Structure formats: C-alpha cells, structure tokens
Amino acid sequence: MYLALLVIFLHCSELYAQGKVYQVFTFNGVKIKVEPSDKVKNGAPMSIICHADISKNTDFQLKHNFTFFKDGKLVFMSISDKEDARYEIPMAKSADTGDYECRVKAGDKVVISKPVYVWVAGMTKPVLTADKKEVSEGEIVKLRCELPEEVPPLEFYFRKIKTNSEPIAKRVAEQNQNFSEMEYYVEAGDNILQFDCFGKRQVKSGWESSQHSNKTLVTVKEPFRKPTLITKPSNNLTEGDIIEFECSTVAAEMRGIEIIFQKNRTILNSVRDKGFLKYSTLATQEDSGEYLCKVEQGAVSKTTKLNVFVSELFPKPTLSASMTQLDENKDLILNCSINGSRRANFSILRKSSSGDILLKKSRILAIKVNVNDTGSYTCKAEVKGIVKESKPVRISVYAPVSKPTLSVVSGSPEVVLGKPLQLICHSVMGTPPITFTFYKGDEIKKNVTNDTYATFLDEDIGLNDNGGYKCDARNNHSSGVKTSNILNVTVIVPIRSASLGSVPYGEVEVGSDTAFLCSVKEGSWPIHFKIFKKTDQEELLYEAREYSDRTIWHKKTMKRRDTGTYYCMASNRASVDVRSRPITISVILAAWQKGVIAAFVLTALAGAGAVALWWFLRKKKKAKGPSMEMSGSALTPSLASEKLTRPPSDGNYYSGSGYIEDNENHMKSTDESKGPDLESAEVDYTEVEVSTLDPHRDSMENRHSRIYGHPDAT
C-alpha cells in the first residue's frame, strides 16, 4: 500500500513540474517628464515623473527601484510595484534648475533614462544689510548682500545711489557661498546715500538676474564745511597792485584740520589746526591763473577754486645787438627798449651758471669784445616795482683758427697695404665750432665740424697712395680758411711667398761649404731674414736686415751633425712673419773618403784571393803527384800572362750625377728621399770604381752649378 502511495506522489509531482511557467520580463525603455513643464516659475510646484516601460510574459508582480539624479547627484529614491514614480517639489527654487535623469532597477536589470533639463525661472530676492546707519565723511560703511535658498556659484552686484547721479555698481563673484560683502568709502559731499544689490546666476540660455534688494539708507555727517576763497580788492587786477587771498572753513573739531593754498601744483601757504588762512603778493602778469584752497582732515579733502586775471602794466623789454657773430677786438653795442617808449629803470646783464652778472644800469652798453665775451645777454626793466626781463641774446666772438697740423693717429706716417689709415687734423687756436675738411690729393673726402680736432679714416689704401693728404680748418672768423702741410704716407707692402734654397742641394759632402738663399716674391724693404734649423727648440742659424728681396748665407765646413731640415722666415714693418717651405740637407762622405774605403776593401779582397789560390794549388799538387806539379807550373805563367793583357778600366767614370734642376723652378723638399743616418749605418761596399778626376770637366761643372731647390736661383 505504501509503495502505491509513493508512486502516486511522484507522478503528481511530475505533472506539476510540467505545468509550471517561468517569469520573463524586459525593459522597453525608461522616460522622464516634468509637470507642469520643463520651465517652472520660482515658487511654483513641480513634479519629476519617471516611467518604466516593461514587457512581461505573464502577469506577475515586479519590484521597481527608482533613483532620481540632478546634475549627476542623487536627489530622490523610491521602491514601487508600479511602473511610475514621482519626485514632488512643492516650491521650485532656482537651485532646482538642472539636468534630471532616472535610473530603474528590476531584478538584476538596470536601465537609465535620457536627461531632461529643467529651468526654474527667477531667483529669490536678495537681502541687503549695512553695519552703520549714520557715518561721517571719510569713514567706511560695510554692506552684506544675501540670496537665500540660492546655490553658488553666484555673482553679486552692489550699487551706490547718490542724488542726481547715476548709480555706481561693483561686482563680486562668489564660488562657495550665497552671500557677499562690500566696503564703501564715504567721500566728501556724500550727504545721503542709498545702497541696494542684486544677484546673477548662469543657466544654459545665459545669465539670469534676481530682483533688486531692499534699499538701505545711510546718513552722512560733515566733519567740516567746504572752504570759502575770496580775493581783495578783486580777482581782476593790474600789475603792481597788491592782491590778498583769504581761505576759511567751519569745522566741528579744529584739531587735525589743515588748510593748503596753492596755484596749479605749487603750494603758496598752509596752516594747521586753524580755520583761516591769508596770502598776499605784488601782482604780476605771471600771477594770472587758477588758485585752490584745500581743507583736509584725515581721509576727507574738500577744495574750492578761484580764477584771477592780472592785466599787463608794460610789455617785456627787448634787447638788440649790433652783431651776434663778430671777430675779437670788434665793437659790440647792446640796446634795451620797451615798446611804447615808456620810462623805466634799465639794466643789462650777462647770464652765468653761478648767477646773472650786472654789466651796466643803462639801456645801452658798448664794449670792445674778446673771445671771453661769448655768452648770453639779457636786459631788465623796472616800473612801479614790477621787474621784467627780456629774452636772452646769444653773442659769439671768434678768434681766428691757427694753421692745422695733419698727422697719423698711430704716430708713424706709414700704413700697411690693405689696412685702414686714420688721420687727425688739429688746430691749436680758434674759437669753436671749427669745420675741418680732409683731402686725398685734390679730392674732398670728409667734412667734420668739431671743437679743436677731427679724424678721418681712409679704408681704401692702394699701392700708389704714398702721399697727398692735407686738411683745411675754418670757423666764423672773417680771416677765412687755413690749410695744413701735405702729409706723405708710406704704404708698406706685406711679405708674400718666402722660399729657401741651397747650393749644393740635397746632399752635401763633409767639409764642403753650402750657400743658403732666402728670398721673397713681394714686400717693402728693408726685409728681416732669418734662417732656422728644425730642432726641438727651433735653432736660429742666421739673420740679416736687407734692402733687397733676398739674402745669402754661406755655411762653412759642413759636418755630419748639420744634416737636417732648414727653413727661413721673412718680415718687414708690416709685422707679418712669412715662413718658407722646409728643405732637407744630407751631409755625406767626401769622394776621397769613399776612395780610401774602396782601396782598403780591394786590398783585403786581393789578399784573401791569393791565399785561397795558394791553398787550392797546394792541395791539388799533393793529390796528383809530381806530374801535376809540372803542369801546374806551366799553367801559372799562362794565367799571369792573361791577367797582364786585360784592358785597363775607364778613367772618365763619375759617381753621382751632374746638377739637378727643378722643372717647375720651385723649392724642392727632400723629406721623401731621406736615407738612413750616415753616422749610425755600417758601410758595406761591394763594388767601387775609382776614376781620376778630369780637371777640365770639373771646372765646367762648377761653371754651370746653381742653387738647387730655390726658384729664384740663377
């Protein structure tokens, strides 16, 4: 029975499993909308509605998690079985402006809506407060403007409103708070002040402004009144009248009061801790203009202005001169006059850095001038205590120029070819300015106006520029132009292309003489020649100063240690050393020394041959017996006879060669043909022919000898 019940239970479970349906759903989308619209007035109610569009395979309940975001920040959450959720805002504020989006989660699925921008139009009205209701001129009033319920960043604008003038606004940006503060300096004349403020915030469409705040009234007290400025007898006067100024003010507290009286920027008088100031002077035409009376106390300053006009009593005098430029020892007449021939007290003066020098109390001055009388002169006229001065007149007295001297700045009257030449022209006497004129030949090169000298730089020096420089000097003296002597300048040609040669060239026998020739292709005389041998310290062998383009040095009795490399250097007053190419000299054994060595070697060889022959014949004789001795004795005379009949050697054979001539006539270097050191090498001769010297041929060779290795050798 139990088995039957078990079978029935399993069968029923299988039937139930076959009838069960899985719950399947999917999001078709999530949308967000705003009621009543996406633009709401400040203070009005607003609803943000999130709707999830979901499809299901059957009708079953599904939990929805709704999350609302504003500008990426979470603002509201809701869990519901329904597919809609509402975020209610009873009174919308400007801070509620922004991008809204909704995220819906169901099961393990999440979908986010597209953002919707909501603009809450209008801002809350700002509130303005002041720390003082009554201030004095020069004090500071502090204002605070606040935008309740607004969220930064915000901009605040404070306005100062004065009667019968445009409001003056100041801007302050606040990044982290919804209020701002501003300090205002109360200026003189600010009797009753009003302040207000408003705010701004940035939205997508631009800037949005709030209403203006309440107006705050601030009463201003005066610490002292604006000063009063008067003149006596009036502000229209004539030169010579006494003018008196009075400046006054009324203050609650005189302590710290300062009255300053000035014309333009010049302070004429001042008093402290007093409410009254006086200033008087003899009126002149220069006293016309604007005067200021300024009263200051702490940071408060008040000013009153007054214009004064002073008419002319008489015009300025005029100084005239018989001549303004004249030679020394000439007569000069100065005359001082007033237009209209009015009577006055005249005086004539000379201007000086230390003060004016009175020359004469008269309207006319006549003097015989010298160069020290050069300067500026004026005259003064006095009427009723009013003194006026004329414009200065410049008088120039000239002494004649002396004959100028022309010289070279460097001192020496010579110049290196291609280098610039600087000349100086100088006149010892003469009143400046002096005009100097430089000539090269008959051509004017330069005009210079200076005090006592002038310079000229000639950068175009040619080979033929050996003279013809002169200069003129003149000033405003009537004597005219003075001319210098003609200056002759020597042009120094620098050394070019030095070369060195020798006789004999290349190889020189021990004990013989050698001639060295150093020459140049171009260069001014005299020329300084030096001949060196290359050593560790560059050994100087010979030097000479020649009025020629070459020099010859005879070296007596050459030795083996004279083997080496030689070169020469040449220089002149151009101070440029020119070095030749080096030549190599090898000192070898003389011909007679070679002959002695050859004779010694031949004698040794002959002796060795005779010994060898004797040994050979003796050995042969022992081997063949007496018969061979006879034949040997018969052979010996035959060999001797043959040896005596051999023809003699050629007596005209010469070792070495005749002279060697350079095909290009240039200096020849023997560095590549250097042999081994003759002093250290062993002598090994294998064949030597000794010939007798032909006196006639030797004299012919000497006649045709030359300096080898030198292009100028002849």
From TrEMBL:
It is found in: Cell junction; Cell membrane; Membrane raft. It is a single-pass type I membrane protein. Its main location: other. SUPFAM superfamilies: Immunoglobulin (SSF48726). Residues 1-19 form the signal peptide. Residues 626-714 are annotated as: Disordered. Residues 663-677, 694-704 have a biased composition (Basic and acidic residues). Keywords: Cell adhesion, Cell junction, Cell membrane, Disulfide bond, Glycoprotein, Immunoglobulin domain, Membrane, Phosphoprotein, Repeat, Signal, Transmembrane, Transmembrane helix. GO terms for biological process: cell surface receptor signaling pathway; cell-cell adhesion via plasma-membrane adhesion molecules; immune response. Residues 227-307, 315-396, 404-488, 494-584 form the Ig-like domain. One of its GO terms (cellular component) is external side of plasma membrane. GO terms for molecular function: transmembrane signaling receptor activity. It holds the Pfam family Ig_2. InterPro entries: Ig-like_dom, Ig-like_dom_sf, Ig-like_fold, Ig_Fc_receptor, Ig_sub, Ig_sub2. The chain crosses the membrane at residues 596-617. PANTHER family: IMMUNOGLOBULIN FC RECEPTOR (PTHR11481), PLATELET ENDOTHELIAL CELL ADHESION MOLECULE (PTHR11481:SF5). This is Platelet endothelial cell adhesion molecule.
